[in-house]
Design a protein that fits this description.
413 residues; alpha/beta; seven-stranded antiparallel sheet; six-stranded mixed sheet; 11 helices; 25% strand; elongated
Length: 413
């Protein structure tokens, strides 16, 4: 209690905390501040406590947003949150100016509302040492992020501002939909069809949002889901946690909100042999590719694994678009696996689309590598996805890729 933004506004606490950190490390200590009335006093306290660098500024706020009169931000106490993005820059510039006038030598890292060379030029007048960019690079792949930085450097050399034109618009708007039909094949798994269609392509996903105090910490919540179908928008939800358990209580006529679609669509050449390998909750991601690619594919084989027959959902729809093979534990206890379904129906050079739990992915990949080249294998393996727009960085995989932007289906290299 009392930490967070509050501690930055109490110079005595700032000094004590910084001094305590300095006592146990020789590493560089950076102290980051938001916009506050007594900023200079707190910065002075941080320097006195042993700070090596000052970072300006944190998100501003608090700000409040609602939809249909209900809180949509994640603060569990009052539904407010920090404000970031382009609108923050004037406050950053003022904070930098004020701190630099008072403290000539302390290194300053500037962040908040920077998206191109024009902002950096203004900050350089106040002898800023480093720059950081966050929100502006939403929607960019890691290669695009690198190119954005390189373009800024060229702009600084040439007096241009080309990098600002590389910024992408990310649609985070929450849109209401009404459930028209609920199909329950198992007690913890249901398919939800809605009254709206969206422009989504195979492999993309969207967030479902439930306003109100749904979570144990009393915050509104949302979760990303594969788009089962785009016409109408359809989700498949298995109850495995607080949000999905609450979602699976919804009935026809109930409303929820969604945003998206996000992610890179799957692309497969026309007249290809395609195999869609699905397991567990991953089966939700397979129907839209099967539906779209069946129009121009040479063949489509769909291999589905489930823990029991009741969790083999959407089979009738899958059967419209390809040959379906299933594996599950039967009543006698024999556990048939997806790997048991690999046979002569899978030709050399097939394009594989995988989605399922990690053990299943690890089991099928060697069989697929024996049949085709790595660039013809696309796999969606779950990483934590919070924003869906490439801003938060929670979904970065071991290769350094933002899977919510560059995936979720990643090509093997």
């Amino acid at each position: 209690k009392g930490y967070g933004m509050q501690i930055g506004q109490d110079p005595e606490s700032v000094e004590q905390t910084t001094r305590a950190v300095r006592a146990v490390t020789k590493k560089i200590i950076e102290v980051k501040f938001g916009v506050m009335p007594n900023l200079l006093a707190s910065v002075k306290a941080a320097i006195k406590g042993g700070a090596d660098r000052i970072v300006l500024i944190n998100t501003d706020g608090p700000g409040y947003y609602s939809i249909d009169g209900q809180d949509i931000l994640y603060n569990p106490n009052n539904g407010v949150g920090g404000i970031s993005g382009e609108s923050l820059f004037p406050k950053l510039l003022k904070a930098v100016r004020d701190v630099r006038k008072e403290f000539k030598d302390i290194p300053i890292t500037a962040c908040g509302g920077i998206f191109g060379a024009n902002q950096i030029r203004e900050l350089l007048y106040h002898n800023v040492d480093e720059f950081a960019i966050g929100t502006a690079q939403g929607g960019m792949t890691m290669l695009e992020v690198i190119n954005h930085y390189k373009t800024i450097l060229k702009d600084l050399e040439n007096g241009t501002d080309v990098a600002s034109g590389l910024i992408k618009k990310i649609d985070l708007t929450l849109k209401p939909v009404t459930i028209t039909k609920v199909e329950r094949d198992a007690c913890d798994f249901a398919v939800y069809r809605t009254d709206k269609s969206i422009q989504a392509k195979p492999g993309q996903f969207a967030f479902a949002f439930l306003p109100g105090n749904m979570m144990p910490d009393k915050r509104p919540s949302e979760k990303p889901f594969s788009i089962v179908d785009n016409d109408p928008l359809t989700f498949a939800v298995q109850a495995v946690g607080h949000f999905t358990e609450r979602f699976n209580q919804l009935q026809p006529g109930d409303k929820f909100y969604f945003r998206g679609p996000y992610g890179q669509p799957i692309e497969v050449p026309d007249n290809s042999d395609i195999a869609i390998i699905l397991g567990g909750c991953g089966l939700a991601a397979g129907l839209l590719p099967a539906k779209v690619f069946s129009r121009k594919a040479k063949s489509i084989n769909i291999l589905i694994g489930a823990r029991d027959k009741e969790h083999l959902a959407l089979l009738r729809e899958f059967e419209k678009y390809g040959e379906v093979y299933t594996a599950y534990e039967n009543s006698s206890g024999r556990n048939k696996l997806v790997t048991d379904l690999f046979g002569p129906q899978l030709r050399q050079g097939t394009y594989f689309i995988n989605c399922g739990p990690k053990p299943m992915i690890n089991a099928v990949l060697p069989l697929e590598f024996a049949l085709t080249s790595p660039n013809r294998i696309l796999t969606s393996q779950e990483y934590l996805t919070r924003c869906g727009a490439g801003i938060c960085g929670k979904c970065i995989n071991p290769r350094g890729e933002k899977t919510c932007v560059e995936g979720p289906f990643m090509q093997h290299k």
